[in-house]
Every structure is written in C-alpha cells, then in structure tokens.
What does this fold into?
Amino acid sequence: MIVISRRFHQLRPRPSEPVLRLYCFHMAEVMYHAVVWIGVVGVAPQDGCELLAPNEGAFINFLTLASSDSEYRAKVRGALSHYRLDPLEFEDVRPLSDSDNPSQEILSIAAELEESRNPKHVRYATFHIFPRVM
It folds into this structure.
C-alpha cells in the first residue's frame, strides 16, 4: 500500500513494503523508420470528383513512406477519398527498388518523399486514363 504524505505531497511506501522505483526516459526525437512504397492503383471517380470524368477510370502509381503493405494501402485509400476517387484494385504493392528501373518522374517523387520524411505525404504520378463502360 502507498501512503501519500500530506506534508511533502509525494508518494512513499510504508516501511514494511518493498520499494518499486520507476525510471522514465525522455526521447527528444522519435525516428519514423519507413521506406518509399509504390503500387499501381486502379481508380474510378465518385460524384464530385474533379480529376476524372464520370465515364473514365485510371491506373496511377502512388508512392508514400510506409513500413508495411497495410500501411501503404491505408494511406493511399485516405488520399483517394480526399480526391473523391474509389480504389478498384491495387497491383504490385511493394517497397520501391532500383531494380524496378523506375522512370525519372517516379525517382523524383521518391526523392521528395525521402527528403521530407513526412509520413503523411502520399504522392501520385501520371494518370493513365481509360474509358469506362457504364
């Protein structure tokens, strides 16, 4: 049992009880350990979408910092919602690698993400638009 001393306003154990000491460490900076992930996302517009016409769809490369497939998908879904786009499918979701032989556009986006290290940033490349049959 712990007794609160009114005189000193501090916690102290009774003499017959063992003492438990807690130590806290303050970390000045927490590092976000993630890498650039990429995937191709097929999308369709929602009502009010300004990026695609109602009879269009698109395949888009999305890039973001993530530490897992599920984190990547969650972030991209959030960005798609903001732009009023529905995800139809995710393809080739993976950490970006030099062996992918990425285009200059993809390399530029990846460099921006690496430099900023902002875990909230989600970037997209060129929209590859196709007609949708309604």
In short: Confidence is low (pLDDT under 50) at residues 1-13, 17-30. Residues 35-131 form one domain. The CA atoms of residues 70 and 93 lie 10 Å apart.
